[in-house]
Amino acid sequence: MKQKFTSRSPIGVFDSGIGGLTVAKSIFRLLPNENIIYLGDSARLPYGTKSKETIILYSIECLKFLLKKKVKLIVIACNTSSAISVPFLSKITTVPVLGVINPGASAATQTTKNHKIGVIGTRATINSEAYQKQIKKLDKKAKVFSQNCSLFVQLAEDGWTDNEIAELTAKEYLTDIKKSGIDTMILGCTHYPILRDTIQKTMGAKINLIDPGEETAKEVKKVLSERNLLNKQKKNGYHKFFVTDFPVNFKSISERFLGKKISEIKKVKLT
Questions:
Q1: Distance between CA 215 and CA 25 in Å, rounded?
Q2: SS3 assignment for 25-82
Q3: Would you state the CATH architecture of domain 101-212?
Q4: pLDDT of residue 116
Q5: Cα–chain-centroid distance for residue 62?
Q6: Of 75, 117, 156, 189, which one is the catalytic site residue?
Q7: Which strand (E) or helix (H) includes residue 120?
Q8: Which residues are CB-neighbours of 95 under 8 A, at least 6 positions away?
Q9: Minimal CA–CA distance to 82: which of 270, 216, 197, 241?
Q10: Which residue out of 11, 13, 24, 78 is catalytically annotated?
């Protein structure tokens, strides 16, 4: 699929729901002049419980939607889809496709001093071993310690990010990984940056927390710069939001994740 686009063309971002908005927020912050189109496939979340074949199919459908919007680059702001779909999507379009796994793993290996790296994420992401494999590829000496922290997703969506329940949950999940001696830890789910302060408090100030969303935003800037596709307009870019369903409290949760008001969210069909 050959696409026509210019530096003014938007960046496309997709996720299975709203977690990817933390990635979009990092892109907004780093590249305020860029136009961005966000697609949340909320009708079919979570992707993490689906088969590999289904995840690839859903990801292709999200890709096709964004390509129709004439995007110049696509970010898969979903750890599950990033772990599985990037190679497949890259084969069917000339538009650059970036996931969140590689930038996160790369930042962790560059940050660690003792080669002990923690990864926290949902069960699907941890079981995929995507971060573990990429870290080992980049640093043969690395020891990776993983922990499923699935309940963090609900805490983030409910806005329970810095209360006693959040702190107790973090302590329960993170006690063992804290004892492992890691000096760096990847927040391997797009919901987790919402709980960053509580996670940092639990792990201690000396532990370096890596947000793959922030690292992906840096990679977006690098790729666009290399291709001379950075938007040079002086004003802030537009941000458009599309979803495949409106779950309960979707708008208020989305605004909490983004840290700004959303004027309009449009519902669309992908098939």
A1: 12
A2: HHHHHHCCCCCEEEEECHHHCCHHHCCHHHHHHHHHHHHHHHHHCCCCEEEECCHHHH
A3: 3-Layer(aba) Sandwich (3.40)
A4: 98
A5: 15
A6: 189
A7: strand 116-121
A8: 3, 5, 67, 71, 72, 73, 74
A9: 216
A10: 78
Instruction: Compute CA distances 90 → 39, 76, 82, 93, 192, whole Å.
Output: 18, 11, 11, 6, 27
> Which residue type does 121 have?
G
Strand, coil or helix: 114:
coil
Number of residues that this document lists for the chain: 271
Predicted confidence at residue 179, as pLDDT, reads: 97
Which pLDDT tens digits describe the chain residue by residue (271 residues)?
567 789 999 999 999 888 999 999 999 999 999 999 999 999 988 887 788 899 999 999 999 999 999 999 999 999 889 988 999 999 999 999 999 999 999 999 999 999 999 999 988 889 889 999 999 999 999 999 999 999 999 899 888 999 999 999 999 999 999 999 999 999 999 999 999 999 999 999 999 999 999 999 999 999 999 999 999 998 999 999 999 998 778 888 899 899 888 988 999 999 7
Q: How far is CA 168 from CA 148, 157, 172, 192, 194, in A?
A: 15, 17, 6, 15, 16
Which CATH code is given to the segment(s) 11-99+214-267? Answer: 3.40.50.1860
The residues near 94 (Cβ < 8 Å, ≥ 6 apart) are 1, 2, 3
Residue range(s) of every CATH 3.40.50.1860 domain in the chain: 11-99+214-267, 101-212
Helix then strand then coil, in percent of the chain rounded to 5, is 50, 15, 35
78 is a catalytic site residue: yes
Predicted TM-score (pTM) of the model is: 0.92
